[in-house]
Description:
Keywords: Transferase. This protein is an alpha+beta fold. The chain contains 4 helices and 8 strands.
Amino acid sequence: MPFKIYFLSDFMVKWIRITKYPLLADFLYEAIFLPDGIEPPPKSIIYAPELQVYIDCFGEKKDDMGLVAETGGKVIGAVWVRIMKDYGHIDYKTPSFAISLYKEYRGLGIGTKLIKEMLALLKSSGYERASLAVQKTNYAVKMYQKLGFEVIDENEEEYIMFYNL
Length: 165
């Protein structure tokens, strides 16, 4: 795929470089939704097998794709997809989303831009849909719905959502 840079105000959205793959561990930790009043878990939680599926050997599978948002040369957010048996798993043809921004960059439209760009990449790559899991109490549920994600399943805590490309 050709390399593109997208601009959003003072932010750039571009392909993640191999040298930036280690940052996905930080963003995976940042993606853990914590309702008000809940203490953050230790960073070591990202080494749990159910979370390692998001980052282990990222870039080695043909369906791994990632974008980052940067400002002033600093990566401030990331969205990445892969086909995996995660919380948002639908089938082995549908990539699952992971997205996160550092707290100080949330609510500025950066996450929305990252998701839109990833959806466009997935569509141009021939995928039919994408999925994700989100806790029901997470403010991001409304953003996903505005973007066109629909609830396909749910459990006590989470919605499993999909997007038809």
